[in-house]
Specification:
Elements: E1 2-4, E2 8-10, H1 14-25, E3 32-34, E4 50-51, H2 58-72, H3 74-77, E5 86-87, E6 90-94, H4 99-112, E7 117-119, H5 121-127, E8 138-142, E9 146-147, H6 150-163, E10 167-169, E11 174-180, E12 183-189, E13 193-195, E14 199-201, H7 207-212, E15 221-231, E16 242-245, E17 250-255, E18 259-263, E19 269-270, H8 282-295, E20 303-314, E21 321-324, E22 331-335, H9 341-358, H10 373-376
Parallel strand pairs: 1-13, 2-3, 2-14, 3-10, 6-16, 14-22
Antiparallel strand pairs: 4-9, 5-9, 6-8, 7-8, 11-12, 12-13, 15-18, 15-19, 15-20, 16-17, 17-18, 21-22
Helix pairs in contact: 1-6, 1-9, 2-9
Length: 390
């Protein structure tokens, strides 16, 4: 059976659902989203949920800043329900040897319009007294940052998209994209053929294999990363903001009334998204917990609550690919977010819809995210290693 639609989005994570909503909200008639299992079953459902804007390239910083504006007022701006945004503030700690790059990055973020500033050690102590501070370090503070519910965000986008006329199909994996005369003509599943002139591939950690089936080879790798939740003694450590500690290589945020989520981007393993181990590793927990306690001494007496592993879709420069495919009219790619996707998802949905409908992204300049940058040797460079800041 053939169903005709104006657009098909492949992938039901927060990227796919954001794109779907933005397409239908801009007048695309009856777009269809195909999800292989359930919404958010890939990287979205195992995201750390942190929302911050501390990036060292303008494109990521701008996407994060635009996205924050949506997260702060999601139900008013988008509809579909509350996504649980909690403003905690976010502090970045950088050792003295990285000061030049750090100051460059803060200036870049401020040019974008981000509400961030370098603060003194004394000011950092007033803003976040639970954190240890050391000689020579520099600090930045983002007062509006926080965290939200990634799975809830994906569901909210899907709910609102359905209300506007989109179709969301679960347990319906796409099997391929039909291309004739260098144009998209359909997306297929095991039981249906969706005739369309527009297909957007947002398949997360499955992107490399799915795109290979269309004859597209991109340097994408699914990598496994772990996070842990510790239950604080609230009498000793009642609360703390979110943060990234470049000296001890951890990122962290509060969760609920008495939990702290902590991760570290340095244990990276290539993984098969269909068979990877989603459980935590106790030796890694010990290492990350020790690192966190150097910055947050009150966490040393906490209790292990739970942990889990999720997948990043990583590119060589840790930046996504958001682009139309040259030579194939109607085919678009949105993948490779390298652990940063949830923070950027609202703005990404906007720029992808602009790219599809207007031929160019206007809200944020995404020219740095073109798919051929790896072949051209024009990858995005950062001032220091940001893989830790997930």
């Amino acid at each position: 059976m053939t169903v005709t639609t104006d657009a098909v989005v492949i992938g039901g994570g927060v990227m796919g659902t954001s794109i779907l909503y933005n397409l239908v909200a801009r007048g695309v008639q009856s777009p269809v989203l195909l999800e292989r299992t359930t919404l958010g079953a890939g990287s979205t459902g195992r995201s750390s949920g942190a929302i911050r804007m501390h990036y060292s390239t303008e494109v990521n910083a701008a996407l994060a800043w635009e996205s924050l504006k949506t997260y702060e007022n999601f139900d008013d701006v988008i509809g579909g329900g509350d996504v649980g945004f909690v403003r905690t503030g976010y502090m970045v700690f950088v050792p003295g040897h990285a000061t030049d790059g750090f100051r460059h990055n803060i200036a870049l973020q401020q040019r974008v319009g981000i509400d961030t500033q370098i603060v003194s050690s004394e000011e950092a102590g007033e803003l976040a007294p639970a954190f240890a501070r050391f000689d020579g370090e520099v600090f930045a503070w983002e007062p509006r940052s926080g965290h939200a519910d990634p799975s809830g965000t994906g569901l909210a986008y899907a709910t609102r998209a359905r209300e506007l006329g989109a179709t969301v199909l679960l347990e319906t994996p796409a099997t391929g994209v039909e291309i004739e005369n260098d144009r998209v003509v359909a997306v297929t599943t095991a039981g249906e053929r969706y005739a369309t002139s527009t297909a957007i591939v947002a398949t997360g950690p499955w992107s490399k294999s799915f795109l290979a089936g269309i004859g597209i080879d991109l340097p994408l790798e699914a990598t496994r990363h772990e996070v842990f939740l510790l239950r604080r003694n609230v009498e000793e450590l009642p609360s703390h903001p979110g943060g990234a500690d470049m000296a001890n290589m951890t990122y962290f945020r509060p969760e609920a009334a008495d939990l702290t989520l902590v991760g570290n981007g340095n244990r990276e393993e290539f993984a098969d998204p269909d068979t990877y181990n989603p459980r935590p590793s106790m030796d890694y927990l010990e290492d990350v917990w020790l690192r966190l306690s150097k910055r947050l001494p009150g966490i040393a007496g906490a209790e292990f609550f739970t942990g889990y592993a999720g997948l990043y879709t990583s590119t060589p420069d840790l930046h996504p690919v958001i682009d139309r495919v040259d030579g194939i009219s109607g085919l678009y790619i949105c993948t490779g977010f390298s652990g940063h996707g949830f923070k950027l998802a609202p703005a990404v949905g906007t720029v992808v819809a602009e790219l599809v409908l207007e031929g160019k992204a206007k809200t944020v300049d995404i020219s740095a995210l073109k798919m051929d940058r790896f072949e051209r040797g024009e990858t995005n460079t950062t001032s220091y290693d940001f893989k830790v800041i997930a």
